[in-house]
Each structure stands twice: as structure tokens, then as C-alpha cells.
Amino acid sequence: MVEITFVYNYSIVLISIVISIFLCVITLDLLRRVRGVKSKKKRKLWLAASALMLGSCLWSMHFISSLSLKTENEAIYNGPIMFFSLFSTITLSYVAFYIFTLKKEATFSTLAPASVLLGAGITIMHYSGTYGIVTNAFIEYNYLLVVISFVSAIGLSFISGCLFAKTIKESFSLFHIPAAVILSLGVYISHYLAMKSMTIYANHYEVVLLKPKKWEFFIGSNSILIGIAIINIIIMGLMHTLSLRERRTHETKMHYMAYYDQLTGIPNRMKFQSTLKDAIKRSEKKSHQLAVMFLDLDRFKVFNDTLGHQLGDRLLIKVSERLIEKAPSNAMLARHGGDEFILLIENTDESKVKEAAEQLLGLFMAPFVMNKKEFFTTISIGISMYPDDGKDVGTLMKNAYKAMHLAQKSGYNNYQFFVHEDDKIHDRKIKIEHGLKKALHNNEFELYYQPQVHLKSKRIVGVEALLRWKHPELGTISPYEFIPVAETTGMIIPIGKWVIQEACKQIKLWQSIGIRIKIAANVSALQFEDQQFIELIDETLSQNLLPSKYLELEITESVMQKINQSFAIISKLKNIGIKVSIDDFGTGYSSLSVLSSLPIDVIKIDKSFVQKMMTNANTASLVKTIIEMGSNLNFGLIAEGIETEEQANFLMQNGCQLGQGFLYSPPVTKEEIEKLLHKENVI
């Protein structure tokens, strides 16, 4: 037995070191990606890729280092042991990396076991790999050095892990390189300590007789180098493919986040603007018109604040689904933000856009069902046309937005085309805002009255008081124009107080001449929630010595969203003896099931439903449902906006007994309504 003396080829040693550091850098980069994925499948994929890369690194380094040893003996490789050395280090590396990335932040409880497993993988690779090189040799071990090689692998793996843990969340950091160098250093110190721990003896007389057994084979040095290079190139190619795939997935995700709404999944404002820009170029080239339609859910803020953002988000999703399904086929839909949507229609004209707007309004006749409850909502639509209302993206969207606000000021649930404002229109808005502050003092307001009739007998059973403003310079101004301004400026509170007081005075005056009839007065949401509201009603009735049965208050659906507060206020009104009705029912968010829990007396079917029910089957069905459910819940029913006998007959046939509209009388002055009341002999 002769001891084998090793002489190292330092050129090959240097090559193995460079390859090892390079592969360790790639390993850490792959391991970093584990933090960025949420899918368990992808997490396992990147862990496996990291373990495979480190395994190939150790395997390559071990055998390249073995080639650096100059001996007289030819090496014979044992196939199963070679496979075991590779498989064991990959497996232990996978488990080590799994533990290392188990928590969001690396701690000693994860770093320590991970380092032990990684050190074990490095050590097993070296000793099993050396054992797999079958020679006519006998090996003696210095077990102290064996332990030191194992401990050094663990210690340097731990230090490398500590450095890497500081920057694992970053895409790249200078700390990655020293972490990779220290990990590679741990591999090399462990390897050469392992080689130092072994004393190998060879029998020269048996060398010539040495032949490969089953699963054993000779490989030349050049073949090993070429083979290792090919294996590493293949592995690096696979890793590169994974990186490209991840990059494409990331880019796709970023593109989706940049151009699509996260809640509804439809295109967002940025995508819409990009599409509109291209559409303008096409329209300019072909001399076509296009339309931008701005959609806003009416009173959505009240719905969201009262019922919660979660239910509000569900409503937005359902709205987007309905718009996608039913909107014109040539329209592009996007979510502009919040409760605002926007549509683009190319190659169109004003008549086609009107049809599209009517179609969109019709989509909201049917309720939205959430949590087994029905919720009604409407939309206001603003429209701008290319090229008349703008020739660029910003102008068209801005003008469509302005038109939408005009639609809201006109009473919601309608559409408006953009109107080019001139200085006169701007001056008018300023005059309205300033004039409101003087209108009460100058007695510019007046109440008009519209009769409410029994549809079958056509006898007047009550009147609704409607506010009118005669501006000294601008003439008569529509409530649709000045009420929103009054609500914004806070003037609606004193104006609403004047309406209640004036209505009660008129009731008392009529009673003094023998006319006994109730008056229904409208109350804004702001006035309804005012702390002095109940006191105002009580004091006004007392001052006029007026029985409460002659005054009825009409409130909008929006106040129903604050159900607890509304219940308390309505209950106090009921204690006084005041009847309460819901005006414009079906245009807000409350449903009959919600109203059933409140002490409401009457619901008024909105005029938009009455006007469309004879030409739209869905609207007719909705009106029938409202009447049926209202009757079942013992609500009084009044239909607004009746203009034809056909409408009146339809309502009577389906159970609605009361109504108002131009068929019977438009809103008239107190003198004219007195003539009608005397004629009807109202007592």
C-alpha cells in the first residue's frame, strides 16, 4: 500500500472557483424570486430551480476540483453513487431553502436549521462524490478535519444567509455578491478540508488489473469538463427560460394593472384615453363622428356611506357587468373612477347616440339584487361629440363630464349633450348663486300647486306645493337649476323653512274660505337631517292652529340610506301626526323591502317610469311590481307625470288609484288652484 500524493493544477482550481461564485450568484437570484410569488405552485417551482442550480454548482465544483489533482491512477466513476451525491445535495438544498423562506423575515429559527441542512448537503456531496471515484485505493479519515469541514460549511452558509436576508426583497443588491462569495467560500473550504481529512493508499500491483464493474465507467478529463459545461449550460438555459417567463408574466400583470380596473376588470381611464386618441385619428382620417359618453351613478355616495364600501363595490361590479352585456356592441366601456364610467362610440351620429343613451337609461329600470334585496339606481349621462365638442382627448372627456353634471342638475336619470358655454351662461350661474342669498328677503319665491286626483273619479284629493323663483333680471328659474346651487351653498335650509311656513299659511287661508285639503311639501335631504327640523314642523303647525293631517311631507329616497337616523326622524313626525311620502320612488337605492321597516305612508312612482311604461315592456313590468308590492305593504300609491288617458287606464287596471300630471293640470298659481278647488267643491 502506497500513499497517493496530490499535486493541484491551480489553473483548474481557479476555473472551478469562478464557476462556483457565478452559479452561487444565480442561485441567490433565483431564491430571491420566491418572496415575490403568492402561488404555492410557483413558489415550489422557484425553490426547485434554486436547489437545482446550487446542486449543479456543488457537483460541477467537486468534479472540476477533482480534475485539478494530478495522480498516476486513472479514475473510475461509480454511476449510482454519483447520482446519489447529486440527488442528496439538491434535496437537502431544497429543504434548506424552503425553511429559509418560510417566514417573511429571516430569523435565527429559520437561518440555523437551513444552514445545517445546507452544510450537510455540501459535506455529503464532497464525501459521497469522492467515494464514488472508484480507484484501487484505501481511504483513512481524520475525523477532526471531517467535523471541521462540516462545521465550516454550516458557519459560512449561516453568514451568507444573514447577508442575503437583508436584501432578499430587492431585485438586486451589492450584498448579493459577497453573500454568493461567502457561500462559495464555504463550499471550497469544506471541500479542501475534506480532501485534507483523507489519506488515500493505492496498490500499484493491482492497478493494471483494475477494470470497471457494472455501473462503473472511465471518463477522460476533457470529457468531464465538456460534460459539466454542457450540463451547466442546459441548466442555465432553463433558468433563463424561467426568468423570461417570469418577466413576461410580470410585464403582463403590470400592463393589466396599468390599463385595467382592479375591481371590475374592465379598461380604466388610461386605457380609454389611449383608445380614444387612436379613435380620433381614425375619425379625422375618415371624416367620421364619434361620441364620448360619461356615466355617473346617481346618489352613489349616499349608498356607499350608508350601506358600506363592500356593498358599494359589489354594486359597481354588477353595474359594469350589466353595461358590458347590454351596452351597444360598437361601444368601448371603461371605468373612469369611483362610480363613474365612460363609453366611446365610433362612426356614429347624434341620432344614434340618443338611441344609445335611451338604451343605457333603460338598463337601470330593473333592480340590482344583493344579499337577497333589491336596490334601484339610475344614471346621469353626459355626451360630447367629435369634432364639434372637441378635437382632442382632454377636451372631449372634459366636455362630456360637464354635460353629465348638467344632466344631474336637470333631475338625474337623464342624458344631456354638451352645451357650449359663453360668457352669458357663466354670468347666469354667478347671478343665480348670488341671487339666492337675496331672494327670500326680496320675496322672489312663490309656491305653485299641482292637484293630486283620484284616477277613477278625477276628483282632487290633495295638492303638491312646488317652489318657483322669479328672478328680477333672469325671469323664472327652474328648480332643477337653482335647487342644486341652494344645496351646495347651504341656502336650502332657510328656503325649505320658508316653503313649510308658506304652505301651512296657505292651508289656513283656504280653510277660512271653506276649502279643506292637504298640501304635500317637498323636503330636501339636508333639511330633513337638520336638528331644528322637527321643532320647525311642530311650531309652524301650532302658530297656524293647523291640524297635522293637512300637511304631508315628501322626502327623497336618498334619506332612506341612513335608515336608523331616518327611522327616528320619521317616527317623531308620525307622533306629531304628519304623513310622510317617498318622492320619485325607483330612482334611488332603496327598495320596497327597506321601506317596509320604516313608518312610510305613501310612495310616489317616478314620472320617468310612467312616461315609458306604455312603450317599454320592462318599465311596464317594473311599474306593476311597484304597485303590487306597495299595495301588499299597505302603502298609499301616487303616480307622477300622467299625460295621457292610456297611462291613467294602465295605472288603474293595475291597482294605482291616485295620480298627478299634465293630463289633469300643470303646476299653477294659488289663484288658479283655488278656482279648480272651488269648481271641484273640495270640502
Automatic annotation (TrEMBL):
Residues 8-201 form the MHYT domain. This is Diguanylate cyclase/phosphodiesterase. Residues 429-681 form the EAL domain. It comes from Siminovitchia terrae (Bacillus terrae). The keyword DNA repair does not apply. The chain crosses the membrane at residues 6-31, 43-61, 81-101, 108-129, 141-165, 172-195, 215-238. The keyword Membrane applies. Residues 288-420 form the GGDEF domain.
